[in-house]
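Help needed: design a sequence for this.
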């Protein structure tokens, strides 16, 4: 199948604005969570439950991979899907390397201008600034990553493996999901992870563990969600989900309120800690799944609120997630720098937080307007120029 046929097939898939909405919200949460000691960060998910925006992004990525590319592969166009998916991997890799270079340059310039070495130590770029000849190679192989740049390598590895994952899911969906579960268990029991730099360290987001959420989401995307319909509609499952969300909220509140922490039974503390993010602790995974069940139950795909002008900024950000994520990393450092160098008052925190989110919305609006500008097609003579869509219609 030609590329344009694959594109038309993927565009025929109905867009789920809920996914764009939650990606947009997730981008805002990541931006806020990357600003240390920011009062506005109390609005983010991680302060009220075990999971955070990372689970949201991985699940959405896996679901979209199955939902969009599953029909393409099942239609006999495996190589076309591989091409599209690996093109996306290349785009993310290039974005990660460019982000890495610009981010470290931003930190290095700040350190020199303000004579404050705190930044290079806080963001793990001290070694790079001392030995760039060694660290650039480690960065290119995704082994060396400054703070806040850990998540893109995880997406790169998962999307790179997604053609094989989808091929298996379309043939033996339940067996593939079982294999993913066994890999997750093996990663946690035997400490399987990818090596990082310096030697002896590993990836902050273990892809052998986080693949479980990605594969489960892809399983849902290729049709597995129909098998879970009875669970989503079950009153008992909904009750368990609400109970688990409430329990998670109570535990997280003990991190902020000492009197609650003192009331927790010792056996319970011993049973649930540590709640590991690197290896996707089961408490984090089940908390996110409980939230997903509640959202699926009470927030259907056709909700009118999704087209509301009040949610449009978040939806718009979610539709441009890669550039907005990269831009958000710079914004979060700029906000942190402003709070450290000038003022850490509540008003300053409100200014940099909401100002950053508004800037992200502005960039998303600009990207959306740019995407709607028609491409130009040069005719055979090299003289005539017309919109690409019109040129295709004329050729037809």
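Sure. Designed sequence:
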């Amino acid at each position: 199948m030609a590329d344009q046929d694959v594109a038309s097939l993927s565009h025929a898939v109905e867009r789920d604005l809920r996914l764009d909405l939650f990606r947009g919200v997730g981008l805002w949460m990541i931006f806020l969570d990357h600003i240390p000691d920011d009062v506005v960060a109390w609005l983010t998910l991680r302060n009220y439950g075990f999971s955070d925006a990372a689970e949201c992004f991985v699940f959405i990525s896996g679901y979209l991979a199955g939902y969009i590319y599953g029909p393409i592969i099942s239609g006999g166009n495996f190589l076309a899907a591989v091409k599209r998916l690996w093109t996306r991997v290349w785009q993310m890799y290039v974005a990660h390397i460019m982000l890495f270079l610009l981010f470290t340059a931003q930190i290095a310039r700040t350190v020199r201008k303000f004579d404050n070495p705190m930044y290079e130590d806080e963001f793990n770029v001290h070694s790079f600034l001392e030995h760039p000849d060694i660290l650039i190679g480690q960065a290119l192989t995704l082994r060396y990553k400054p703070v806040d740049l850990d998540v893109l390598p995880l997406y790169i590895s998962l999307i790179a493996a997604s053609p094989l994952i989808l091929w298996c899911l379309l043939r033996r969906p339940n067996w593939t999901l079982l294999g993913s579960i066994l890999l997750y268990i093996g990663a946690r029991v035997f400490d399987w992870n990818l090596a990082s730099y310096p030697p002896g360290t590993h990836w902050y987001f273990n892809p052998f563990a986080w693949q479980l959420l990605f594969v489960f989401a892809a399983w849902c995307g290729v049709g597995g969600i129909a098998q879970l319909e009875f669970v989503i509609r079950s009153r008992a499952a909904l009750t368990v989900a609400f109970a688990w969300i409430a329990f998670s909220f109570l535990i997280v509140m003990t991190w902020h309120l000492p009197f609650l922490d003192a009331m927790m039974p010792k056996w319970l503390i011993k049973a649930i800690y540590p709640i590991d993010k690197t290896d996707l602790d089961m408490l984090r995974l089940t908390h996110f799944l409980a939230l997903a069940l509640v959202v699926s139950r009470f927030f259907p795909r056709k909700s009118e609120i999704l087209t509301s002008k009040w949610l449009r900024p978040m939806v718009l950000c979610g539709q441009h997630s890669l550039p907005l994520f990269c831009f958000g990393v710079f914004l979060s450092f700029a906000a942190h720098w402003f709070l450290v160098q000038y003022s850490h008052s509540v008003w300053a925190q409100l200014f940099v937080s909401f100002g950053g989110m508004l800037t992200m919305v502005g960039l998303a609006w600009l990207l959306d307007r740019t995407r709607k500008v028609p491409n130009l097609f040069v005719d055979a003579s090299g003289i005539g120029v017309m919109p690409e869509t019109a040129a295709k219609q004329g050729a037809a």
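DSSP finds 19 helices and two strands in the chain.
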